[in-house]
Amino acid sequence: DSGVTQTPKHLITATGQRVTLRCSPRSGDLSVYWYQQSLDQGLQFLIQYYNGEERAKGNILERFSAQQFPDLHSELNLSSLELGDSALYFCASSAGESSYNEQFFGPGTRLTVL
Amino acid sequence: GEDVEQSLFLSVREGDSSVINCTYTDSSSTYLYWYKQEPGAGLQLLTYIFSNMDMKQDQRLTVLLNKKDKHLSLRIADTQTGDSAIYFCAESIIAGRRALTFGSGTRLQVQP
């Protein structure tokens, strides 16, 4: 158990819908990262927050957004869902701001768009 | 640009050594990592190496880094069935992006 929790574990929805994925980092960790793992794209970095502020953006679509709240949990919002958004979404947390701080991964949320 | 490549599949017999290879292209990488993903689980950091090192050993794991060829390998000694998983190498860069760039993952199958 990494100490990072993600909810829900599974999510099934239809195209065009909007969903919110939630992540609670390890106690004391200030950075939260979101990653998408799909069969065709592999594991890709989406976005990072550090202590409530956006720090880095990767291959995140405009239809996707995220935020980190004062209690440091984070939410990833996916809207106007398409079939290709079906993937495993991971959250990771680390103590510091830099990527070379060890990142601890949550178990992931599996999103299926029908 | 950044690109991390791995072979997709490796099969070994229990008790043998496994060697998983990775190549990367970004010469400014400073940390390189190996993560393990078991079925239905998240990623677990196994080990990492700083780019000024050539080798790092941690129990059954040995990481070798060839900076000239931008080649990273993970050797698992005395491979067990519990080592069956997908292994990802990843790189991070201190300056610039603050995220990990992952390879496609190598599925290790350990046969009894």
Structure description:
The complex is a heterodimer of chains A (114) and B (112). In chain A, 0% of the residues lie in helices and 53% in strands. With 114 residues, chain A is mainly beta. In chain A, the strands form two sheets. In chain A, strands 2, 4, 5, 6, 9, 10 and 11 form a seven-stranded mixed β-sheet that branches. In chain A, β4 (31-38) and β5 form a beta hairpin. Chain A is globular, with a radius of gyration of 13 Å. The model of chain A has no long low-confidence stretch (mean pLDDT 93). With 112 residues, chain B is an all-beta fold. In chain B, 0% of the residues lie in helices and 55% in strands. Chain B has no helices and eleven strands. Chain B has strands at residues 4-6, 9-13, 18-24, 31-37, 43-50, 55-58, 61-66, 71-76, 85-92, 101-102, 106-111. In chain B, strands 2, 4, 5, 9, 10 and 11 form a six-stranded mixed β-sheet that branches. In chain B, strands 1-3-8-7-6 form a five-stranded antiparallel β-sheet, with no helix packed on it. In chain B, a hairpin with a 4-residue loop joins β7 and β8 (71-76). Chain B starts with a strand and ends with a strand. Chains A and B meet through β5 and β10 of A and β5 and β10 of B.
How do the helices and strands line up, and which of them pair or pack?
The complex is a heterodimer of chains A (114) and B (112).
Chain A: E1 5-7, E2 10-13, E3 19-24, E4 31-38, E5 42-50, E6 53-57, E7 64-68, E8 74-78, E9 87-94, E10 104-105, E11 109-113
Parallel strand pairs in A: 2-11
Antiparallel strand pairs in A: 1-3, 3-8, 4-5, 4-9, 5-6, 7-8, 9-10, 9-11
Chain B: E1 4-6, E2 9-13, E3 18-24, E4 31-37, E5 43-50, E6 55-58, E7 61-66, E8 71-76, E9 85-92, E10 101-102, E11 106-111
Parallel strand pairs in B: 2-11
Antiparallel strand pairs in B: 1-3, 3-8, 4-5, 4-9, 6-7, 7-8, 9-10, 9-11
